[in-house]
Amino acid sequence: MDLICRTTFLGSAGAVAAGPSEYWINALQQSNATISPPSAKAVSSDSSGNIYVGGSVRKADNSGSNSLFLKFDEEGALTARKELSDRNTRIRSLTVNGSDIYWYDDSDGYGKMNTALSSISWFKDSGDGRVESRIVVDSSGNNYISGRAQPGPIDNTNRDFFIAKHNSSGTNQWQRFFGSSGTNFFGIGCAILGDGNIVQVGNSDISSNRALYMVIYNSSGTLQASKAMTRTSTTIYGGDAGVAPFSSSGFVTGSPVSGEGPILTAHDADGDLNWARRIGSSSSMNLAGVCIDSSDNVIICADDRTSTDRKLVVIKFNSSGTVQWQRTIEHEGSGGYMIFVDGDDCIAVDKDDDILIAGATTTNSGQVAGALYVFKLPKDGPTAGTYGDYKITASSISTTDVASSYSVSTVSKTVNSPSASTPSDTSVTLASITRLSLVEDQAIS
After folding, report:
1. Among the listed residues 111, 129, 225, 242, the one whose alpha carbon sits nearest the alpha carbon of residue 187
2. Does an H or E element contain 97, and which?
3. Helical H segments across 299-388, by residue range
4. What are the strands, taking DSSP E only, across 318-427?
5. pTM
6. Rounded Cα distance, 387 and 330, in Å
7. Neighbours of 326 (CB within 10 A)
8. Residue-by-residue pLDDT tens, the chain, 445 positions
């Protein structure tokens, strides 16, 4: 076992005793500080409270990046760290189902391994130019991968929504393409709804009214609904912050809007709009990810960007869209550090509904000397204060009701249902990694 105990904080503020803690901030760097730091794109947890992070790490000779997996126990001890030493790409999406981890990477590969990070059950590489953004798994181990095909089969020129269902052995059960001739459709996230249907969200490049598209299938791949949310003369990058399901019915998704703050929208099981909130007033606010806890509270993660800084923003809403609390997190280390998140799987909740966030810090002048970070925050919101190099403050970012500005309507597009084919198994090498150093190990309250 690769165990790094939570005993000291090693940041620039000096050594501070930490010890096991219910809530914490951890950060890792390359041991060779001249090599760019690791990055995190996805975080998930299991029923025992263990936390899993997927991302990438630069090779020892800095010639490229390998897929990276990290495992922490619920008190923040790093218990396993592995890389795919022959997979020169990053993990984009990761989820845990029972004793298995399912993941998807940036190069059309998807796989399954045990939660001990010791054995890969299977790995498949489609190698067909699809760009997938999310993998989700049902209770039987069936997994759905969502993204876009470029080009797609609808006109063999433009991009189409793409979604595929695989069983727990990775065998393709069905695949669907959604779009229309002459238009690019950018499929992004997907979620399994409380009724067992699957919703896929994304957008298109229709110049007159770029929209949020929501396509709903049942578990057999039969189309149930296709809707578009629009606002006149407005560019909506629909679904860019992912999608998450409410426990019984419906879902929530986040979308950047050109020239203003992003929107968080809640929809019923058919895609019709229940409520909408604009986060902030400026497009400098980047809504990165959304998740929902067991009480149907909605938690979002964003980074607030200026020309010289990026701050992490966390806001918790109840199921009706009312703000429960919000916090801003800054990195105050020397060298002009900025903190950001990158990927719609960057936020999740654990078995106790506490909040998990994974991302990276960097400097104004580049990525060398930054770090991969993992936060575990209390569900009622962290206490304001300075924790090592990190400062947490209560914030008051505007969350404006904008539901009346948007409309949802049924759209009729082409659904292509080709025969399902399963890529062959591909051999990948899972290896321990020793070139990462724990540089933050800070308890918070």
Report:
1. 242
2. strand 91-97
3. none
4. 323-331, 337-340, 347-349, 355-363, 366-377, 385-387, 390-394, 399-401, 407-410, 414-416
5. 0.93
6. 10
7. 19
8. 344 434 322 233 333 334 467 999 999 998 887 788 899 999 999 999 999 999 999 998 888 999 999 999 999 999 999 999 989 899 999 999 999 999 999 888 999 999 999 999 999 987 666 776 799 999 999 999 999 988 888 988 999 999 999 999 999 999 999 999 989 999 999 999 999 999 999 999 876 668 999 999 999 999 999 999 999 888 999 998 999 999 999 999 999 998 899 999 999 999 999 999 999 988 889 999 999 999 999 999 998 987 778 899 999 999 999 999 999 999 886 666 788 888 889 999 999 999 999 999 887 665 556 889 999 999 999 999 999 889 999 999 999 999 999 999 999 999 999 887 778 889 999 999 999 988 888 999 9
Q: What is d(CA 305, CA 340) in angstroms, rounded to the nearest whole number? A: 9
Scored b (16 or more CB within 10 A) or e, 338-361 reads: bbbbbbbbbbbbbeebbbbbbbbb
| 402's tokens | 């904008």
Q: Is 20 helix (H, G, I), strand (E, B) or coil?
A: coil
Here the tokens at position 148 are 């876009």
Strand pairing category for 310-317 and 298-305? antiparallel
- Half-sphere exposure (CA, 13 Å, Cβ side) for 347? 31
The DSSP 8-state label assigned to residue 274 in this structure reads E
* Pair of tokens at residue 115: 């939660």
Dihedral pair phi/psi, residue 219, rounded to 5°: -70, -10
- Quote the tokens at residue 342: 């990158």
What 3-state class would DSSP assign to 98? Answer: coil
Query: Tokens in use for 300?
Result: 């979002």
Q: Which residues contact 112 (CB under 8 A, 6 or more apart)?
A: 100, 101, 102, 120, 121, 122, 123, 168, 170
Determine whether 157 is exposed, middle or buried from the number of CB atoms within 10 Å of its CB (0-12, 13-18, 19+): exposed
To 10 degrees, the CA torsion angle through 51, 54, 55, 59? 90
